[in-house]
Specification:
EC 3.6.1.15, globular, about 25% helix, hydrolase, EC 3.6.1.6, magnesium ion binding, about 180 residues
Length: about 180
């Protein structure tokens, strides 16, 4: 499988369970790349939706992808603090083209005070039926929602104090 190398600029591809592309982020700088973990940074990157529409991200972000966890975490750095958008997803793969994962609809938004809300449960329920998510996937995804909530409450991984500051500082060294 290989791994993206530190300093590489890569795309991020999000798919749906049916194999269709969901969203593409044009450019993310790899800050750490191992078999088990990719941490990247981006700012004002072009995002292309499945219907061809494009938009540009508004703020710097640190992206966290793990090869064993069924979620990824995007930390958006804003003037009033760090906001996290957590996608319940398949573990990432790297295929020398892009960091890729399957988006499973459920999301958790975390605010700077570490309060959070679970989003898109209706979309998940609809897609679970439409795309015929296997029972085992449904179980894994629900377990990972619980795991992610524990990480938030325990300030683990990207939610740990200083985690985002450290990786954002590293990202800034690549922008100069």
């Amino acid at each position: 499988m290989g791994v993206p190398m530190e300093g590489d600029r890569v795309q991020i591809h999000s798919y749906k369970h049916n194999g269709k592309i969901h969203r593409v982020w044009e450019e993310t700088t790899v800050l750490k790349g191992t078999q088990g973990l990719v941490i990247g940074g981006n700012d004002r990157t072009v995002v292309t939706e499945s219907d061809g529409r494009t938009w540009i991200t508004r703020e710097p972000a640190i992206c966290y992808f793990h090869s064993r966890n069924w979620f990824n975490i995007i930390a958006m750095i804003r003037e009033d603090g760090v906001y996290y958008y957590c996608n319940i997803s398949s573990p990432f793969i790297w295929d020398n083209e892009a960091v890729k994962y399957i988006d499973y609809d459920l999301d958790i938004k975390v605010f700077p005070d570490m309060t959070f809300i679970l989003l898109d449960e209706d979309e998940y329920d609809r897609h679970r039926v439409e795309m015929k998510y296997p029972e085992v996937i449904d179980h894994i995804l629900k377990e990972n929602v619980d795991k992610l909530i524990r990480w938030i409450r325990q300030r683990k991984g990207p939610f740990a104090p200083d985690f985002i500051d450290i990786w954002y500082e590293r990202y800034l060294t690549y922008r100069q």
